[in-house]
Write a structure and sequence with these properties.
It contains ten helices and 13 strands.
Length: about 325
């Protein structure tokens, strides 16, 4: 383990990105993310990969500045026009985010993969970690859940058009606006972004072994319409089952809560929303501002409690 005094966030905690202080008033945030396609359209995939890679910087309260492309491409078996479309999608999304592409690296691979390494900046005193919630704080989730279940349904050939469109829109929406609105507030105590571990998996991380607990109102958590039917038809991603198995001991489930809803709350997300922990008064203020700014699915989904410590009470 590094003992460099300028290292603010390193590898020892399950944080979203690394943070290194350069000056009293300046730190850099570094993160990297790349993966295989989860939609058929190359341009959309490029946009999703960039939205996802930038998200960890936003989740820490930072501003992404520069990025480098990471490309694995089967050049012998796939037309290069596909790669061009992916990179164009990525470029357009970086442009929207105000992020400058300054380089990259590509290798030949049997399987297509794309993503970014990202560098951002933040004031060292303003770094948001995924832990630090105080009793009475509210939790705001900024995007609806369901991207994992939808991409599993897509592979099975049974995702209808509106649902696919909704999922793609969700995965290509930057967390930039949400992060900017959050930055104006005084009582934001913690933040993370919802990705592979699912909503409940990331929520569990926020309070694991902590001196506080969490209550989640299952029926207040936003998810795509039509999702329950898919889960009932056993369209369940392998990652969802892993997430649930791994974290279920940390979640006390109200017997009235339908199993399909618990499943949805564990669905692994790609480029999911922010989960923000903040004071009660500012939570309602932020929620209103988000709705006004078009972050339509944002919702208050629960709160930090004094007990059960280190656990989530899932009420219905
Ligand atoms: Co993250
Ligand atoms: Co990440």
């Amino acid at each position: 383990m590094s003992s460099d005094p300028n290292l603010i966030v390193g590898m020892e905690h399950a944080e979203d990105a690394g943070v290194y202080q350069l000056r009293d008033d300046l730190a850099i945030i570094q993160t990297v993310d790349f993966f295989t396609p989860i939609v058929d359209d190359p341009y959309t995939f490029g946009q999703i990969a960039v939205t996802n890679a930038l998200s960890d910087v936003y989740a820490m309260g930072g501003k992404p500045l520069t990025a480098m492309n990471i490309v694995c491409f089967p050049i012998k078996t796939m037309p290069v026009s596909i790669l061009r479309d992916i990179l164009r999608g990525g470029m357009d999304k970086m442009h929207e985010a105000g992020v400058l592409l300054i380089g990259g690296h590509s290798v030949e691979d049997n399987e297509l993969k794309y993503g970014l390494s990202v560098t951002g900046v933040i004031h060292p005193a303003k770094v948001l970690l995924n832990r630090g919630g105080e009793v009475g704080d509210k939790l705001i989730l900024t995007k609806a859940l369901g991207t994992g279940i939808v991409s599993t349904a897509l592979k099975a050939g049974i995702a209808d058009e509106p649902l696919q469109a909704k999922s793609a829109r969700c995965m290509t929406t930057l967390n930039k606006k949400a992060a900017e609105l959050m930055a104006d507030l005084e009582t934001v105590h913690a933040c993370t972004d919802i990705t592979g571990f699912g909503f409940l998996g990331h929520a569990c991380e926020m309070i694991e072994d902590a001196n506080v607990g969490m209550r989640i109102e299952a029926s207040h958590v936003p998810y795509f319409p039509g999702l329950k039917k898919l889960v009932d038809d056993l369209i369940i991603p392998a990652g969802l089952i892993r997430n649930k198995r791994h974290r279920m001991t940390q979640v006390l489930v109200d017997p009235a809560c339908p199993e399909s809803l618990v499943d949805i709350l564990f669905d692994p997300q790609t480029a999911g929303g922010l989960l923000i922990v903040l004071g009660n008064a500012e939570a309602w203020e932020l929620l209103q501002k988000m709705h006004d700014a078009g972050i339509e699915d944002a919702a208050i989904v629960g709160e930090i409690t004094a007990a059960p410590k280190g656990k989530i009470e899932l009420v219905f």
